[in-house]
């Protein structure tokens, strides 16, 4: 067999070698049994030699010796199989884990220094937004720090939430002033506890003087993270603005406070493994390259805890010779042996790729004797090898689901198109959504809902899909329906090339109010944010809102909420405050 030629004798070992000594007493017992069995036949010596040919059957001696040999051989083969011979590592799919990313932003007073235009803090925000726009794909958390460290956004892949909260961050939001790196390192330590994949940290700060390099090195090595530091200061530096008037320089003991980049600290940090001090560029190329690198190295395979799990136990291969030898224990063993050998030889296939037809995907294999193709495909599906399972499934539903989970949405679509059941068409709609073909998905879900009204989930997906398509067109579903039924507002057309007012003449306040009312009448809606007083048809006390009012979400600055949150956390001692040497 070809498998014996593939044995790597350099890697050959036993998985259960500690049981090797157990075979010695068993072998001694077998030998004693054979010896005692030979002693039981000593009566043959007492028969006269001229009578022995007529009393003792010829050939019994070599047969008995052959039986002894078979017994020893069976024991040896079975015991070797029990010890677990192996020479190749397992190819089972390893558990995949995703890398996580933490963005730490310095909110100390010195970040408002204007040596970096427009100031250090705003430039850091620009860099973070450019980084998120490049889509690193990793789960990202945003934290801010001064004398205390606080979480703004926990781990998420919704970068828009991070950007919305990032814009309003200012130093005055922090409960205590200063730059506390010790509290920052404690927070990072908790965020990367039990970290299974290499993590990433982006640190935006202008104060490298307070960083403890040994503590940073310990964090990087202990949690297997890569730290990228963006120094937001220049070597020449600038005056730190006052806390209450940013146009006036901050003074400490009568001296103007100046903040600059320390070159010796930069060189010291660059010498630590796992820490990179990034040279900031004027464009977004630096953060774009970093985002692409994180995206390309996002998924990692988790190593198994037990090293023996990496090796494949080949002891099962010795079952075949054991079966062959057991056949001799039965009458007419040679006939049975011939049948088994004939079946075994007919099921053997060559492993030479040149002898295989590339288009022959149904090649017979040894495991086909015991498992059906569907069962083999289900085993691959259970091990999350979805693409391999899809090749084995014949049922369009199972094949489509496997392709869908494996990420091959094109083949999943082809499989679901062959399934005319309601579930198959429902999955086809989901596949069209993954492919970005919302119109086809809408048509499929609409057909499913029409033919199967009891499928509530299909109706929900159809509604969500209509809302998504309406957002792409710039209006809500209700607004689009109203505009189909009512005429548009008759605004005046500007025919003059010189007058840009919109109506060829200056609009009066009365005209503006008239056209505004006309516009509201065309849509049949009055915006809740634009109402100066309650409408006449609003009934107090019933908790209902008139149907002709479309309430819009009122944009509120999250900075106020975060300011109160940070102060509350410090007040309740949920967050520790570090006593810093400086307050800026």
TrEMBL record:
Start and end residues of each VWFA domain: 101-206
Ranges of biased composition (kind: Basic and acidic residues): 485-496, 508-540
Keyword Transmembrane helix appears in the UniProt entry: yes
InterPro entries documented for this protein: TPR-like_helical_dom_sf, TPR_rpt, UPF0353/GerABKA_families, VWF_A, vWFA_dom_sf
Region (Disordered), start-end ranges: 467-543
Transmembrane domains' residue ranges: 20-38, 66-87
Keywords of this entry: Membrane, TPR repeat, Transmembrane, Transmembrane helix
TPR repeats (start-end): 422-455
Protein name: Mg-chelatase subunit ChlD
């Amino acid at each position: 067999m070809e498998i014996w030629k593939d044995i790597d004798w350099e890697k050959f070992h036993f998985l259960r070698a500690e049981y090797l000594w157990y075979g010695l007493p068993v072998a001694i017992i077998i030998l004693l049994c054979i010896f005692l069995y030979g002693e039981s036949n000593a009566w043959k010596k007492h028969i006269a030699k001229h009578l022995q040919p007529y009393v003792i059957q010829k050939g019994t001696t070599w047969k008995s010796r052959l039986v002894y040999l078979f017994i020893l051989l069976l024991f040896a083969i079975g015991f070797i199989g029990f010890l677990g011979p192996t020479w190749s590592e397992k190819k089972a799919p390893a558990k995949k884990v995703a890398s996580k990313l933490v963005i730490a932003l310095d909110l100390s007073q010195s970040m408002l220094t204007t040596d970096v235009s427009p100031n250090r803090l705003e430039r850091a925000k620009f860099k973070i937004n450019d980084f998120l726009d490049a889509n690193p794909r990793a789960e990202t958390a945003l934290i801010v720090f001064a004398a205390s460290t606080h979480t703004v956004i926990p781990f998420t892949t919704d970068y828009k939430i991070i950007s919305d909260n990032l814009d309003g961050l200012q130093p005055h939001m922090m409960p205590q002033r200063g730059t506390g790196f010790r509290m920052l390192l404690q927070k990072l330590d908790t965020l990367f506890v039990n970290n299974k994949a290499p993590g990433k940290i982006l640190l935006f700060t202008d104060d490298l003087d307070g960083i403890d390099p040994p503590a940073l090195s310990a964090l990087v090595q202990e949690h297997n993270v890569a730290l990228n530091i963006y120094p937001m200061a220049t070597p020449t530096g600038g005056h730190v603005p006052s806390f209450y008037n940013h146009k006036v320089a901050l003074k400490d003991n009568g001296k103007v406070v100046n903040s600059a980049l320390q070159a010796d600290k930069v060189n010291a940090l660059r010498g630590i493994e796992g820490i990179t001090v990034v040279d900031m560029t004027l464009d977004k190329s630096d953060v774009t390259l970093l985002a692409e690198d994180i995206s390309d190295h996002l998924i990692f395979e988790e190593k198994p805890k037990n090293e023996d799990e990496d090796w494949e136990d080949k002891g099962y291969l010795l079952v075949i010779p054991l079966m062959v030898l057991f056949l001799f224990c039965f009458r007419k063993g040679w006939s049975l042996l011939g049948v088994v050998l004939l079946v075994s030889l007919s099921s053997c296939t060559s492993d030479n790729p040149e002898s295989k037809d590339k288009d022959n995907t149904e090649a017979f294999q040894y495991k086909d004797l015991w498992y059906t193709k569907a069962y083999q495909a289900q085993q691959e599906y259970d091990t999350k090898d979805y693409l391999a399972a899809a090749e084995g499934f014949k049922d369009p539903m199972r094949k489509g689901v496997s392709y869908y989970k494996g990420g091959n949405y094109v083949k999943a679509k082809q499989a679901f198109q062959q399934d005319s059941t309601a579930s198959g068409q429902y999955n086809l709609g989901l596949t069209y959504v993954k492919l970005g073909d919302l119109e086809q998905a809408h048509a499929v879900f609409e057909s499913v809902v029409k033919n199967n009204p009891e499928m509530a989930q299909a109706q929900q997906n159809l509604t969500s899909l209509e809302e998504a398509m309406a957002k792409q067109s710039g209006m809500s579903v209700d607004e689009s329906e109203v505009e189909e039924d009512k005429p548009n507002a008759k605004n005046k057309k500007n025919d003059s090339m010189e007058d840009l007012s919109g109506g060829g003449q200056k609009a009066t306040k009365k005209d503006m109010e008239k056209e505004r009312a006309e516009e509201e009448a065309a849509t049949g809606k009055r915006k809740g944010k634009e109402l100066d007083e309650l409408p006449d048809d609003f009934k107090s006390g019933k908790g209902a809102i008139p149907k002709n009012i479309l309430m819009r979400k009122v944009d509120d600055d999250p900075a106020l909420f975060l300011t109160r949150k940070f102060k509350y956390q410090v007040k309740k001692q949920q967050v520790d405050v570090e006593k810093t040497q400086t307050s800026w």
